[in-house]
Design a protein that fits this description.
Elements: E1 2-4, E2 14-18, E3 23-29, E4 35-37, E5 47-48, E6 50-53, E7 60-62, H1 63-76, E8 82-85, E9 99-102, E10 105-108, H2 109-128, E11 134-139, H3 148-164, E12 169-174, H4 175-184, E13 191-198, E14 203-210, E15 224-230, H5 234-246, H6 265-270, H7 282-290, H8 298-309, H9 313-330, E16 334-337, E17 351-354, H10 356-362, H11 364-380, E18 388-392, H12 399-408, E19 413-416, H13 422-433
Parallel strand pairs: 2-11, 11-12, 13-18, 18-19
Antiparallel strand pairs: 1-12, 2-3, 3-4, 3-5, 6-7, 6-8, 9-10, 13-14, 14-15, 16-17
């Protein structure tokens, strides 16, 4: 299913844009039919979906530079500015048009999305050497689960942001369908494929009939057998692992002297990429300080206050994310050493360990839900098993997920695609297959 903005035809080359929760990418097909993945950072064809507003210099940086500048400012103690990540997660919510204070000025989250898309457009045009005013944007199967009105609002908001960023023509294609178009260029025979796209915020699935040698064939609706999606992804994995492994060192799940559990809001926000900034507000800091008398272990409260006052939440989440990746890839334990955050007595010699067993245990419920959604997609297509499972998206290589999919579909051939660039490439191909109507 293609979600198009009503226009007569593409008036210029079309930039395929995968605006992701964690990472973003772009690609374009030239007049000769050659694919051009856009190198957004050095030689890399993807960049973190991150912005950093420096309070020290007033400068705005994007992607990896944003993350690095934030960490540098924190470590140098110059007064960290505002780091924003996972802004896609706000699409479809009332928060998108709310104002937030950035370096003393009010800025809406919608304007933040516009700033990022405008920078992505600028980088693409700098590489291509010509302006691009048309965009085929990816969208998850569901921006918001079980809420068609908010889902439609999310797409409309992203479309409005793309127009504000300078794109005069905008169309949408589902991300797993775009990934299928990218994979189709590499198959040697007609294949029924389950596309598994595990991103930062959503997990999306498409059962599709792919035809060898025909990525340009138009009117592909009859080839799409079923689509499904669920609002779970890599940032949810980070949150759950942070809550399970690290936040208990700051007091999460602990009991007060009277026997009740400590309030968990501050720990939840510290573990959620797009909510971390709330923890540095005056209100949150005051509430955290007031918890002092509820702590049985005062050292835990001291650690919590140090993380909050030094604004180490993003850095801590980054360490959890890296430990998750290392544990999955190496199939061995990975240490999360809080003492590496900065030189402080409060965090010295404090660490957590993530190993394959607790990785599987902590993520068991969301991974089961994701696998069930994949099964629903296959069942909706009328098939028993896919011939091929094509994995894409930043979190698609997570070993416990791959193991569950192998168990669920034992006869399918497992193929790993370009985790960060496949969807953008497919969106560029989709612009050739489908024109706005």
């Amino acid at each position: 299913m293609v979600h198009n903005t009503p226009t007569k035809s593409w008036s210029s080359p079309v930039l395929g844009i995968d605006f992701g929760t964690s990472n973003s990418a772009a690609a374009l097909i030239d007049a000769q039919g050659q694919l051009h993945p856009i190198t957004l950072e050095g030689t890399r064809t993807s960049m973190p979906t991150a912005l950093y507003f420096s309070s020290e210099t007033g400068q705005l940086s994007f992607g990896s530079a944003a993350m690095q500048q934030y960490l540098t400012d924190v470590q140098d103690g110059v007064g960290a500015g505002r780091l924003m990540r996972a802004i896609k997660s706000l699409l479809g919510s009332a928060l998108m048009d709310e104002q937030t204070v950035v370096n003393g000025q009010n800025l809406s989250f919608f304007e933040v999305v516009v700033l990022f898309l405008r920078e992505l457009k600028r980088r693409a045009e700098a590489q291509l050497g010509f302006p691009v005013s048309a965009a085929m944007l990816g969208r998850p199967v569901h921006f918001v689960d079980d809420n068609p009105e908010r889902d439609a609002l999310a797409q409309a908001t992203l479309q409005r942001a793309a127009h504000a960023a300078g794109f005069t023509q905008v169309a949408f294609e589902m991300e797993p369908i775009a990934a299928a178009f990218d994979f189709e260029r590499r198959i040697g025979s007609d294949t029924r494929v389950l596309v598994v796209d595990i991103g930062g915020g959503t997990s999306d699935f498409t059962m599709i009939q792919l035809v060898a040698g025909s990525p340009r064939r138009q009117h592909r609706h009859q080839d799409i057998l079923a689509t499904r999606g669920i609002h779970l992804g890599g940032t949810d994995f980070d949150r759950l692992l942070d809550l399970a492994c690290v936040m208990p060192l700051l007091g999460y799940g602990q009991r007060t002297p009277s026997g009740r559990e400590l309030p968990n809001r501050i720990f939840y926000e510290l573990s959620t990429w797009h909510l971390v900034h709330h923890t540095s507000s005056r209100k949150s800091l005051a509430e955290a300080r007031d918890l002092w008398h509820d702590y049985s272990d005062r050292a835990q409260h001291q650690r919590l206050m140090h993380v909050l006052t030094e604004r180490l939440g993003h850095q801590l989440l980054s360490m959890v994310e890296l430990a998750k990746i290392a544990c999955s890839e190496n199939h061995s334990h990975s240490a999360i050493n809080l003492g590496e955050l900065n030189q402080s007595e409060a965090l010295a010699k404090v660490s957590a360990v993530l190993d394959p067993i607790n990785l599987q245990q902590v993520l068991s419920k969301p991974l089961s839900a994701i696998t069930d959604c994949a099964r629903e997609c296959v069942a909706a297509s009328g098939l028993q098993q896919p011939e091929v499972i094509y994995l894409t998206g930043g979190s698609s290589a997570l070993s416990p997920l791959v193991d569950q999919l192998k168990t669920a579909f034992p006869n399918a051939n497992m193929v790993h695609g370009d985790r960060f660039g496949g969807v953008a490439n497919g969106l560029a191909w989709a612009a050739l297959c489908e024109t706005p109507s």
